[in-house]
């Protein structure tokens, strides 16, 4: 892995409390002279699982991009704050804005390829990226949204059933809830109670993509067999209707969990962001 | 095992001796020597980690298992105490074990077997149980390997009564010294300078006594690799080639350097050492091992003892440092380099009494 | 030339097998160390495996959809005989460089 690692828990307080986010800035060996790329991982994942082990970080550095990675609260090497507010999507977006500025991202200026910020999200990270792009038009240059969904599957998560299951093993009736919890428990590094806080916070601020639509060019990518991203065309239509340039890329044979390593996905994103 | 030995005795017939002069790498020269030893002595056995099927991580035993069978050339578990412990038993039973410890640093787990058994069994048994064990140890640094892969253990082994220690400096020496060592009735620690494995050089197979070397008429003792008048560089293993380079550079400055390849580190050829320094009256000893209690101290004492009246300067020691052998990136800072050796020469040249 | 085989590495989390998604190299390719070799998927995640060494690819094991157990052969490289298996780097033979010059008044007494 080339590049300077400036990994640290982020200590810049945005709204009074320390979000304890673990941020790394990775420098390419040969800089392509383009704006930094912010990577946002999915639920129950991490920078390492979503972007490093899958070859994304290496591919972006190879393409000469400066990369900002951040573990979401309760994930990876970030802290797991006690307060519910730290997990709300709006608070996370505010923290991400601070992270991006601290890492050197600056507002877009016409004709300056170093200005602005490109954002790549996956799954929950795509939801955050959509909202981040919609609310930060002066900063975000382009978006790549992997495995995106018009609604957040976490909003339908049966929190009570999950808590009961964790307390005394009562089986969970809802299949999606049971699946998500199993996934979250599969990784010993996950702080399961922090993840449930995140779910609860998301239920309080469910994804409504129509509420604010990003106006920068977007690339939406999903595996052909990704049920969780079956609504991707609706999301694309929403963006296109409001005048955004939206491209869609369907990766044959892949599903929500294995599209992430796809070379076609990476190359598509790198090409889309290379302008 | 007995069947395999019978098979290999049949194969022995085609163990053709080598003749003439060939350009070989040290790897190839050692391989040829082992081939001949196996062919000539049905009791000789080669074993160690990856020695058999793979032919050794450095390819020193390449092809020998295919030629002599799994009964004579075989892989062992990753357990050096077992490799050397088995050598004790095999030697007691009349075999000539030629075990390999894959890297110098892995000899440490077998120190008990080497020091407490192999080195003293002959003594303990009043000469009734000799230990003809030839332990090959890829040694010293220079290949940017991880920890435990660049140690210089000669002083440790030389300190143990009952062990002989030898290190070749080029392919010709490697061939003849290994053949000689593997036919001794005593335990020999054979330290192969791993950074020189790939270096080619002429091997004169006909000079079974090593007479291709300038002064060497025997596989025992030290060799003057280059004659000079002003200062003697004493070295062994990989440092000999570096000292020969230094001698070339010193000649540009009008300094005539003699390079003595000690070869045998136990016993040290005191007569050759003293003869050389009596002539040049100055000595610099160069080794990769750390300074303190390194073999350079022993060399300095032998020189002082034998040349005190004519010595023009205290013996200089240019060595590694008193730290664990560093990781590959720092290797060039640790191993004596050309400039450090030149500095040592300069110091003995400008030393004045009083 | 010698061949050197690499098994499917331990992917952690107690995983014992992985499914090949897509090979990124083919037999005959010359690959560099750390170059992506193959995408594999486990029950927990999808990962891209980087090459443990430089060399020419001789064989690859398993096509898309095939399961490979941890420790089973994944890829075979061809490497020069005398470097196969070595831990470290074969040293380069370079012309000697010096900064120190000797100066001495040699009294030939």
Automatic annotation (TrEMBL), chain C:
<dbReference type="InterPro" id="IPR011053">
    <property type="entry name" value="Single_hybrid_motif"/>
</dbReference>
<dbReference type="InterPro" id="IPR003016">
    <property type="entry name" value="2-oxoA_DH_lipoyl-BS"/>
</dbReference>
<keyword id="KW-0450">Lipoyl</keyword>
<dbReference type="InterPro" id="IPR050743">
    <property type="entry name" value="2-oxoacid_DH_E2_comp"/>
</dbReference>
<dbReference type="InterPro" id="IPR000089">
    <property type="entry name" value="Biotin_lipoyl"/>
</dbReference>
<feature type="domain" description="Lipoyl-binding">
    <location>
        <begin position="1"/>
        <end position="78"/>
    </location>
</feature>
<keyword id="KW-0012">Acyltransferase</keyword>
<protein>
    <recommendedName>
        <fullName>Lipoyl-binding domain-containing protein</fullName>
    </recommendedName>
</protein>
<dbReference type="Pfam" id="PF00364">
    <property type="entry name" value="Biotin_lipoyl"/>
</dbReference>
<keyword id="KW-0808">Transferase</keyword>
